Amino acid sequence: MGRGPSIEARKNATDAKRGKIFTKIIREIGVAARAGGGDPANNPRLRVAIDKGLAANMSKDVVERAIKKATGELEGVEYEEIRYEGYAPGGVAVIVDCLTDNKVRTVADVRHAFGKFGGNLGTDGSVAFMFKKLGVLSFAPGADEEKITEAAIEAGADDVVVYPDDGSIDVLSAPDAFEVVKATMEGAGLRPDIAEITMRADNDIAVAGETAEQVAKLLAWLEDLDDVQNVYSNADLSDAYA
After folding, report:
1. Residue 207 domain-assigned?
2. pLDDT at residue 166 above 90?
3. Rounded to whole angstroms, how far apart are CA atoms 195 and 47?
4. What is the 8-class DSSP label of residue 213?
């Protein structure tokens, strides 16, 4: 019987994954600070990025260093925001948001990923119209539905979605209202497991079998690219290997 990976190997893999998450958050903090200033009190996008970093156990020193690099107090790299759009197998729409210091490298990596798993890169706007930008506060199964719903209405949220399969709950808001809704919910003692501004598709496409396998591999490959910040799709993979 073969042995699994050693404790050291598993730790190294975990550390590498954690390092990649940190790199993506640091880039987001930098771009937000450069665009809207280094004061999170006056820069909502920076506040969201800092919260994400702290939630991932990033130290305040690392956060402050990223802000100082972005605002010119320390020497740093300047990153550019780029969005790519395309289709995965089965007609699944995919949006790839990147922060890069080398557009040629990034588009080559993204194009290679789509081609490798049977998809194709599209033109600007080819799939974005299928998605909406919104704030999402996600609560794990077992959360108090009644209390969350009351607080969400009070906070000015747009919708509360309860998922019947596991009882998890999402509170949805307009991006501009996200900060207020999040603060109000937390003030009521309701701290979400995940809080983010994201893109969600108007309608999902169910894929199964080999197609679903290719879609899942493509999305995972894209998410693992250094220059990629976020990957959004309208794939419903609940029947992935049916």
Report:
1. yes
2. no
3. 12
4. H
Is the Cβ–Cβ distance between 83 and 97 less than 8 Å?
Answer: yes
**Phi, psi of 134, rounded to the nearest 5 degrees:** -155, 160
Asked if 70 contacts 30 with a C-beta cutoff of 8 angstroms, the reply is: yes
45 shares its domain with 95:
no
**How many CA atoms within 13 Å lie on the side-chain side of 192?**
25
Residue 159 covered by a domain? yes
Q: What CATH number does the domain containing 183 carry?
A: 3.30.70.980
Q: Residue 189: how many CA atoms within 13 Å on its side-chain side?
A: 3
Domain of residue 45, CATH code: 1.10.10.200
Q: At what angle do helices 7-36 and 44-55 cross, to 10 degrees?
A: 170
- Please give the residue range of the domain that contains residue 165: 141-192
Band of the pLDDT at 3, cuts 50, 70, 90? Answer: very low
Count Cα neighbours of 213 within 13 Å in the Cβ-side half-sphere: 4
Question: pLDDT digit string (tens) for 39-93?
Answer: 999 998 899 999 989 888 899 999 999 999 888 887 877 889 999 999 999 999 9
Q: Cite the DSSP H helix spans in the chain.
A: 7-36, 44-55, 60-70, 103-116, 145-155, 178-187, 209-224
Q: How far apart are CA 13 and CA 214, in angstroms?
A: 24
Rounded to the nearest 5 percent, the helix, strand and coil shares of the chain are 50, 25, 30
Give 224-239 pLDDT, tens digit per residue: 999 999 999 999 987 6
What kind and span of H or E run contains 83?
Answer: strand 80-88
What's the total number of domains in the chain? 3
In a domain, 125, yes or no: yes
Q: Which pair of structure tokens corresponds to residue 1?
A: 């019987």
